[in-house]
Amino acid sequence: MAIRVVHYLNQFFGGLGGEEQAGVGPSLVAGAKGPGILLERLHPDLLVVATVVCGDNALAERPEAMVAEILDLLAPLFAAGQEERPQLLVAGPAFNAGRYGLACGAVCQAVAERYGIPVVTAMAPENPGVEQYRHAVPMVATALDVGGMAAALGGMAALGGKLVKGVEVLPERDGYLPQGLRRNVWAAESGAQRAVAMLLAKLHGEPFATEYAMPVFDRVEPAPAIADLSRATLALVTSGGIVPRGNPDRIEAANAQKYGAYSLTGLAALSPASHQTAHGGYDPTYANDDPNRVLPLDAVRELEATGRIGRLHETYFATVGNATSVANARRFGQEIAHRLLSARVQAVILTST
To answer: How close are the terminal C-alpha atoms of the chain, in Å?
Structure first.
């Protein structure tokens, strides 16, 4: 009997249109659409019973509301009898489309938590959805574009089938991206013996595989020092969550999805009446009592008044670093840097907590 599948697609692959339809909210249709038709054709052991379609912008801008609406749309399917309930959710493939990848990850995680069925998505390793959701959602690695559609669907079908049947899966064997999980297994040799064997293999130029791969982080070469700060334009940026009173952009206290740009014009210092912290990762008492402790406007205005710096850029940028994904942090940094370079800013003071 075929495995009953629900398929999640964005507005383009769901046949609604391109960017002009990116703001469309979720809808549920019976049967397969777009890539789901090819999925059934290539893998007759899968039956797409329903397809959820949602615009990329809709889910990116209001993720909690859109995911909740998708869960509600699916509720009748999971209220059906055991013979009719979906057994698997597949999302995408998203390839290297960032908004789509983040949406696939969010929907998969939510469905797995609410309805307790296996979920699978697929995207390029460079997609920001990988960094944010790979620990919670099995992901098949794809090519950068739709040229890899058939292979991506095949990977999702194979992995999803094993998950539904309760077969143990491993990244290196089953072709999905490592999730950073550690499992206890019995080994014939002790850890010391295995380590020595790996060392000897390395010394002899023979192949070996580490049992505990270390994470790889970006290395950023520091820019040359500013020759004359008295002529430089300096900007303030913070991940400490200092925002105007009331948090007008609703920056999240953790896992921030956005940053804000705020004016400093006419301000010699910040005050509790004008600013606060939105950060949820530290005791806000002292930052709220004196926001200059995190965003040192008062001190920088003194440097400006005494000629130690040329001038202060009159817009500062703020977000929350607490549990924010590397992918989002990288995007924030790139966008803020572009705006600062366009404003001819030469130096930045970046404060944390």
So the answer is: 56
Dist. CA 122–CA 48, nearest whole Å: 17
* CB neighbour list of residue 231: distance below 8 Å, 6 or more residues apart: 310
- Interior/surface letters 225-246, b for 16+ CB within 10 angstroms, e for the rest: eeeeeeebbbbbbbbbbbbbee
Does an H or E element contain 63, and which?
A: helix 63-78
Q: Residue 51 corresponds to which tokens in the numbers above? A: 């397809």
Closest C-alpha among 115, 91, 112, 95 to residue 103? 91
Output the CA torsion 39→149→112→78 (10° steps): -30
- Which tokens sit at 41? 């054709």
Domains in the chain, CATH or no CATH each: 3-174 (3.40.50.2300), 229-351 (no CATH)
pLDDT above 80 for 216: no
Residues in Cβ contact with 150 at an 8 Å cutoff, skipping those fewer than 6 apart: 38, 42
List of residues 6+ apart from 46 with CB closer than 8 A: 2, 3, 5, 39, 40, 88, 157, 160, 161
Q: What is the DSSP letter of 255?
A: S
Res. 178: pLDDT tops 90: no
Pull the structure tokens for residue 183. 């499992």
- DSSP state, residue 40: H
Q: At what angle do helices 149-165 and 35-42 cross, to 10 degrees?
A: 60
Q: Residue 80: its pLDDT value, please?
A: 76
DSSP class of residue 223?
A: P
Parallel, antiparallel or unpaired: strands 139-141 and 88-95? unpaired
Name the DSSP class of 240.
B
Q: Quick one: average pLDDT of 184-202?
A: 90
**Cα 163 to Cα 108: distance, rounded to the nearest angstrom:** 14
Continuous segment of H or E residues that includes residue 115:
helix 98-115
Which has more confidence, 19 or 33? 33
> 97-113: per-residue pLDDT in tens?
889 999 999 999 999 99
Model-wide pTM > 0.90: no
Phi first, then psi: give them for residue 233, nearest 5 degrees.
-95, 125
